[in-house]
Amino acid sequence: MAYFKKWPLLLLLTSTSCFAQDDRPPDITDVSKVTFVNPGFSYEKRVAKLQSLLGHAYMSPSIYLGYSSSLGNMSSVYFDPAVALQYRYYYNSGKRSEKGKRTEMNSLNYIAAIEDLSFSRNAISSSYYVETNRRPMHRFGLVWGLQRNRPKRFSVDFNIGAGYLVARSTSLDTSGEYVTSNEGVFTFLGQLTIGLWLNKKK
Length: 202
Description:
This protein is mainly β. It is 14% helix and 59% strand. The protein contains two helices and eight strands; from the N terminus they run αββββαββββ. The chain starts with a helix and ends in a 5-residue tail after the last strand.
């Protein structure tokens, strides 16, 4: 008789466990994408709860506008080969889920630490000249961003923030001689990426 009395308690504990699991905020998953704005390929790997590492190999468009007292107004547009690595923390999965908004395929907001390496002739600021040959340019920084991967595969990823840019740069010294050295400047970070996610539809 005591055996049958345990069944209601067991059913109650099982039901409570199921409801608790249903109430948990959704987690993220691995996502691969082909991108058209910033054309290339990216892969995002889940590494912990709501945390991921994202790698992106792409062609980076850059626009340079500057002014020099010796050369006047300067402008240029480049498409530079680049690779980027981001550590992302997604923070609003619970709120989006409660409001019935899409969270699948990491359709969430995030904060990310980024490292970006491009090969460019672009000057790092108006204090320096445009380089003759491509050379490595390193960017490090923090950004806030959002990613939306729609059910029909359309993907938008936008982020904005601040960072530090380091590259070999050429300038004129006080004697009028050209001087080349590694220089760094604080810089604005911003990127819009549009493409298609490639995962199997569920």
